[in-house]
Amino acid sequence: MGVEIVTKDDLEKFRLVIVEDIRQLLCKMTKGEADDIRGYKGPDVRGLLGCSEGKLKSLRTCGKIRTKKIGGTVYYNREDVSRLLTAGF
Question: How far apart are CA 56 and CA 43, in angstroms?
């Protein structure tokens, strides 16, 4: 088992490769895909649906509206909110 030494230049090249990979991934995302990653926040959904926090939690637990938690913030699926607006709940 040989020993390899990592230099600052090696780390800098690695950082540049990672940054470029992330940049390419972000460029591949269309605007619609980026919007789908996030959804509506709770207060926005309550305002759109005209419901209380308890009703929103009920919709979430019974599976009528999907959620995604990003960085401690819960986002509600845009398609589900639109479906609930048109069909009612």
Answer: 10
Q: Domain limits of the chain?
A: 8-87
The set of residues, in sequence order, having a beta carbon less than 8 Å from that of 81 and lying 6+ positions away, is: 39, 40, 45, 48, 49, 65
Q: Which residues contact 79 (CB under 8 A, 6 or more apart)?
A: none
The predicted model scores a pTM of: 0.58
Quickly state the pLDDT bin for 5 (edges 50, 70, 90): very high
pLDDT digits (tens, 9 = 90+) for 58-80: 999 999 999 998 888 889 999 99
